[in-house]
Amino acid sequence: MRYRTKIYLSFLAVTTVSVVGGIFFLYNKAANALKFELRTKVVSVAATTAALINPKDIIDLSENLSVKSPSFLRLQKVLLQVRDNNRRPDLFVKYIYLLKPKNHDSREIIFLIEAQNAVLPGQKDDQQSQSQIYNHLEEFYSPNRFIRDKFGVWMSGFAPIFDENGNYIATIGVDISASSVKSTLTHMMQFAALGLLISISLAYMMAYYLSHKMTDALEEITFCLDKVAEGDFKTLVNITSQDEFGKLSETINHMIKGLKERQALKTNFSKYVSTYVMDQILSDQSQLKLLGERKKITVLFSDIRQFTQISENLSPEDVVTLLNEYFDVMLKVVFKHQGTIDKFMGDGLMAEFGAPLPDEDQETHAVMCALDMIVELKKLNARFEIEHRPPISIGIGIHTGNAIMGNIGSEKRMEYTAIGDCVNVASRLEQATKTYQTPILVSEETFKALGSKFDGKSMGSITLPGRTKEINVYAITT
User: Fold this and answer.
1) Fewer CB within 10 A of the terminal residue: the chain, N end or C end?
2) CA distances (Å), 436 to each of 220, 302, 433, 463, in order?
3) What per-residue confidence (pLDDT) applies to 399?
């Protein structure tokens, strides 16, 4: 294979691989970002809807699967209100429904109710193989993939519903259309394909130009050196470019002139071929262990104060809208500060810092998250005031300690969560914010780790409910 051909093929291959790799990387980043945004919104709708459902209606409907039963009509009314209230330009809920296993030991999932009566009570869920909902019945869940059926492309979100004894009874399902997202991704891929075609065409022309320019220079140098080897010192290299070949041409011509003057060849020529080697360094990334393991974490609890009174003065759809907007803002703040959402609890949430990935600055990130939550809540309340909606306030408790992190549960159902005394302490600190009339309370363990990064006020030592040992607590200045 000629050197020109090697240069040409190498340049074209490197360009093609680089462009394809870049397009693939950017496409995946954009696709994952769009899917994450949709999953966050649809889970938020499902979670807040679950808080509005009366478990007794579900139990009654499970015993009498009739579209004319009072429980069916009550549930349908709530679902329709939630659906209609969440049909906005940025979030359009198409379907909202209740699911449950057909019976205690069955893996078959059936519908209890669908807001528009698109399916009948007791009808089998044909999409359960795509959503894998059976494996996530008792958790907030959204498949990391689009669900397709004959009606379109959907992003689904699910939230469990429990009875007053904490037993699972059903799952709220929400479908939002993902057709626009798929269309956007399709257009992105089309533009990427066009960009790839243009890049390859330019690479082809550039490779052709450079390979010919390089090999033409080499051929001229070779021809001149062949003449010198034959004893012809009249032939000179005619390369005037301002690069290595131009410099080499001047050097060779200078050498030929010296040989011509002495009439003898005193120097042997050697070819030097420079080879460039690229070493790629791969850094090993430790795998996350989703096993029960003891580790230090910082737990954050937050809860809306007097939410029951607020709910009494609002319609169910207004309550859902308020919670949707609140959780949407708070989730973004937690993720911004490297936190992990553990669970939703009605109008409250629990987040962890330092799990599942270790975080040396977990206490700082947790407090920064709490302060940002207060800032974002003020912005949200400012908008609520303009819209003549009631303002809300929250209490936040933060504690650092050891907990068991990992998959907790049984072989049939597991949940990645934290278990330990530090969880209880953080929850009690959040409740204590009502007593001390301050939005953020942190334990002494957390406060000591902060150093002088934040302003805090000692509230003395208190005995939290359910504990006998006093702890020192501090209020973080907002």
Assistant:
1) N
2) 88, 15, 5, 13
3) 94
Which CATH fold topology does 293-476 show? Answer: Alpha-Beta Plaits (3.30.70)
Closest by alpha carbon to 303, among 368, 402, 397, 228?
A: 397
Burial (CB < 10 A; 0-12, 13-18, 19+), residue 395, is: buried
The β-bridge relationship of strands 168-177 and 293-304 is: unpaired
Interval 143-155: pLDDT, tens: 888 888 777 788 8
Instruction: Name the DSSP class of 283.
Output: P
* Statement: residue 215 has pLDDT above 70: no
**Do residues 48 and 323 touch, judged by C-beta distance below 8 A?**
yes
Counting beta carbons within 10 angstroms of the beta carbon of residue 378, is it exposed (0 to 12), middle (13 to 18) or buried (19 or more)? exposed
For the whole prediction, is pTM greater than 0.90? Answer: no
Residue type, 393: S
Residues 257-262: contacts with CB within 8 Å, 24+ apart? Answer: 257/233, 259/228, 259/233, 260/233
* Distance (Å, whole) CA 293 – CA 378: 38
In the three-class reduction of DSSP (H, G, I as helix; E, B as strand; rest coil), residue 67 is classed as: coil
Q: So what's the pLDDT on residue 27?
A: 72
Structure-block tokens of residue 211:
């390979």
Rounded to an integer, the average pLDDT of 73-81 is: 91
pLDDT at 122 over 80: yes
The answer to whether the CB of 477 falls within 8 A of the CB of 442 is no
| Contacts of residue 92, Cβ cutoff 8 Å, sequence gap at least 6 | 86, 176, 177
Return d(Cα 324, Cα 87) in angstroms, integer.
12
Confidence of residue 269 (pLDDT cuts 50, 70, 90): very low
For position 237, what pLDDT does the model report?
63
Best CA proximity match to 317, nearest among 43, 38, 52, 113: 52
Output the CATH code of domain 52-177.
3.30.450.20
Chain centre to alpha carbon of residue 338: 11
Reported as a single tens digit per residue, the pLDDT across 390-435 is 899 999 999 999 998 877 666 556 666 788 889 999 999 999 999 8
Sign of the torsion angle spanned by Cα atoms 361, 365, 368, 370: negative
Q: Taking residues 50-79, report their average pLDDT.
A: 90
Structure tokens at 326: 């609140």
Element (H, E) at 173: strand 168-177
Residue-wise burial string across 266-288, b where 16 or more C-beta atoms lie within 10 A, e elsewhere: eeeeeeeeeeeeeeeeeeeeeee
Q: Where are the domains of the chain?
A: 52-177, 293-476
Average pLDDT, the chain: 80
DSSP string, 399-448: EEEEEEEEEEE-SS-EEEEEESHHHHHHHHHHHHHHHHT-SEEEEHHHHH
